[in-house]
Amino acid sequence: MSAFLASHYLWIKALHVISVIFWMAGMAYLPRLYVYHAEAAPGSDKSETFKVMERRLLRGIVNPAMVATFLFGGLMIWANPDLLGQGWFHLKLTLVFLMAGLHGAFSSWRKDFEADRNKRSARFYRIFNEAPPVLVVFIVILVIVKPF
Predict the structure, then answer these.
(1) What pTM did the predictor assign?
(2) What stretches of the chain show up as alpha helix (H) in DSSP?
(3) 120 in helix, strand or coil?
(4) Of 61, 69, 108, 111, whose CB is crowded by the most CB atoms within 10 A?
């Protein structure tokens, strides 16, 4: 299996990057929807529309993209286990797991909106809207520059 993965490494890497792009697009857009949803009256048509948009975005794009990101990333590690010995990679994985934790928080917040029990302000979601791009900047720098 390892030889197969090594011979298809660039395809796996391409699929990993594509998955990351879709995951991050959703992670950037979902909290922006929460900003607008927090400003809508619970039970209003506007609120109900946001519920549908958030559920479809999370279930149709963000969740599958995160799973694919981890799947293809794991295959890349399997094909190239030397990555695990590099310091930059440890920090990158830490930031990726922080992103996954943020994904979990976003999923939880969607459930609060779905049940009309959101207690957070639009400002709260505006702040968290900045977290995925900040993490992405550091992850990309680590992957490209490999500073240590």
Answers:
(1) 0.94
(2) 2-7, 9-38, 45-57, 63-79, 87-114, 122-129, 131-145
(3) coil
(4) 69
- Among candidate residues 128, 130, 146, 116, the one with its CA nearest the CA of residue 47: 116
Instruction: Report the 10 Å Cβ neighbour count for 42.
Output: 12
- Answer whether 5's CB lies under 8 Å from 78's CB: yes
Residue pair 5/12 in contact by the 8 Å Cβ criterion: yes
Q: Which of 33, 37, 35 is nearest to 25 (CA)?
A: 33
Q: What is the DSSP string of 31-47?
A: HHHHHHHHTSPTTSHHH
| 49-69 residue pLDDT tens | 999 999 999 999 999 999 999
CB 77 within 8 A of CB 83: yes
Given CA atoms 108, 116, 60, 135 in this order, what sign does their dihedral have? negative
At 128-148, the pLDDT tens digits run 999 999 999 999 999 999 999
